[in-house]
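WARN retry 2 of 3 for item q-0093 after timeout on previous attempt; input resubmitted unchanged.
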Amino acid sequence: MQIDVNEYKHENEYKELIENYAGKPESLLAIMQDIQKQYNYLPRLAISLISRHVGIPVSRVYAMASFYKAFSLTPKGRFVFRVCDGTACHIKNSETLLDQLQKSLGIKPGETTTDGMYSVETVNCLGACALAPVMVVNGKVYGKVSPGDLEGIIKEYGGQNHGYDNQGS
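OK item q-0093 returned
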């Protein structure tokens, strides 16, 4: 397991979060959730430290991280735009919404902007079909979103200062 040198600058922060929990395997999920919430992903060094703290193999921590969609093993942007592509949203043109979001931010689903501000993801269903098409940004739900609404939504999250193409060209 190769660890990015930049992760070491957060080592004490990882340890502090991890040490809030008893070193028992049943605390694994809660520790992972705290790290994910703080850093928007599970850094390799944190996974190694979690493994040692709770006394389980690193492979098991990775298995948990890859099983749950809520966890990411790669850095996410400060703001994560999740576009629903469930049946109701798809019928209501979520694909057009996603296309415009990609143009506006200059990234594809699964990618993060180079400044670390934004990530785009698609999800199978957000469970808000009556509001289709639906998009969630860091837990805030936006319903009946049109491509024309995106400029304003992106601006809510600092988009006006990053030079992204919010005009859709």
